[in-house]
Structure formats: C-alpha cells, structure tokens
Design goal:
The chain contains eleven helices and eight strands. The chain is of the alpha/beta class.
C-alpha cells in the first residue's frame, strides 16, 4: 500500500497517472508545525538545485492566510536544497513536508508531491516564484465558485527595467489571448480535476503548457488579475530577446509535434 511520507523509491513511480491520488491523500502523515486545521490548499514545490531560492520561497508563506500545507518535492539535488528546507522546517510556522521524489523531473515531482498532501486544492509553484500577499486567499475566493476548476495568476519578472517589464506584459497578453499558461504563472487546480486529468503528463518539457490545454477542456479556468513575481534569471543569463525567441521556437515546435525530449535539448538549465 502507498503510505504518506514513505521515502522508499519502490513505493511510487511518479510517471504513473494520479488514479490513486485521492486514496493517498486520505492516509495522513507527518508534516511540519503550524495550524492543526485541515489544509484548504496544498502548495507543491518541485525543486532541482534550488539552494539559492528555496529558503526565501518557504519564508514567503509566513505572510499567507492559514490553513494550508506545503511540500518540497526535491529531485535529489546535490547542492543542499533538501538540507536547507529541512533546516527551515525546525522553526516553520505552518504545515511543511520536505522529501525526495522517487523520480526526478518536474512533472514526476509535482505528481508525487501531490499524493503526499491532503488539501482539496493544489497550487504548483516554482521555487523562484513569489505569491502576492493575498495569493492563497485569492485562490480560495475564485474557487468558491463551483464552476471554476482552477487557474493561474498574472506574472511579473523580478527585474523591472527594460526590456523585462515588456516581456512580463507580453507573457500575460499571450496567456489572455491563447487561454494557455505555464508554471511560472502559478497553476492551481482542484484535486478532483487533477485526478480526472491523470496528473501532469509524463513529459520532460512543457508539461505545464499541456496541462493548461487539458484544464481548458475540463471546465472554466480563472485568470487572476493579481501578479506573482518570478525570477528573471533565464532571460538574464541567456539574453532577454534571445530567450524570448527561443521560448517561442520551442512552443511552435511543440505545436508542430516535435517531441518534448528533443525540444528539451534546446532548453538548457540555468541553475
């Protein structure tokens, strides 16, 4: 049987769809400190070599409205990401779990992390992203409408000078125009819908874009007007306009049917 909090790599293959996520989420288990009320929102943070961002990421939730739970689903980072998160756990004022996913890869880590939580609403957040101070309450408010299945925030790059402000505007405008969105916009979804969709697709790149397509087909998706902030590091390291062009080529290639594995070769890590 699947056991909440079990770290054995034989317990769960995260490539499998989430048909049993509801069962796993009912089993309970060890979390960090904080409120004993049942969490309304579970925040799943997939990490890989995020030693420079994970602490600030976890500290941001101290300003959010309880009850919620957080899990860091690490990919076995060699840079001490897990150790930093575990150290913060000692004084954490909310429910926090830190664990190594049985399988590395953003989709696999998000799917597995979701099974380790209990809340009815899931928010998938990158370690270099920061919610607005009322971010979790905004999710609660919009999902009070039973017709809404999930959604995303607007995004703002943390470098605000030109051309990063223009890039932020472009990302948000494209999302409004196409109805699609990516993980740096903060994807939130009802657990029941995630189960229905089988979790994030087991692909190495653009699993978030593919999920947004599936969410659009599943029901009404909410586009929140409040902004979350995300790191500009990819644009800064790769060159702002060069990175914009690369990302558009990758999207276009995906639309044409090029395999995510091949597209991932173009998308170098910035960690």
């Amino acid at each position: 049987p699947f056991r909440h909090g079990d770290r054995s790599e034989n317990v769960w293959d995260a490539r499998v769809t989430l048909a049993t996520i509801g069962q796993c989420s009912q089993l309970g288990g060890k979390l960090g400190g904080g409120s004993q009320m049942k969490a309304e929102i579970a925040i799943v943070i997939p990490t890989w070599q995020e030693s420079g961002t994970v602490l600030a990421c976890l500290q941001q939730f101290e300003r959010q409205a309880l009850p919620f739970e957080v899990i860091v689903s690490d990919g076995g980072s060699p840079d001490g990401t897990e150790a930093i998160a575990l150290n913060y756990l000692k004084s954490c004022p909310y429910s926090l779990d830190v664990a190594v996913s049985p399988e590395r890869g953003r989709a696999a880590q998000m799917n597995w992390g979701a099974t380790q939580t209990t809340a009815d609403i899931l928010l998938f957040l990158h370690a270099d992203s920061r919610l607005p101070v009322d971010g979790l309450q905004a999710i609660r408010d919009v999902l009070a409408d039973a017709e809404a299945i999930g959604g995303r925030f607007q995004v703002r790059l943390d470098a605000t000078e030109w051309p990063y402000s223009a890039i932020s505007w472009g990302i948000n405008a494209r999302s409004r125009l196409t109805g699609l969105f990516t993980g740096d916009m903060g994807i939130f979804i009802r657990r029941s819908v995630l189960e229905q969709l089988g979790g994030f697709p087991a692909q190495v790149l653009l699993e978030d874009l593919e999920m947004s397509k599936r969410m659009q087909r599943a029901g009404r998706v909410a586009f929140l007007s409040s902004e979350m902030t995300t790191s500009s590091r990819r644009w800064q390291q790769g060159g702002a306009w060069r990175t914009v062009a690369l990302m558009q080529c990758i999207r276009y290639g995906y639309h044409l049917g090029i395999a995510p594995e091949r597209l991932a070769e173009w998308y170098a890590t910035v960690r």
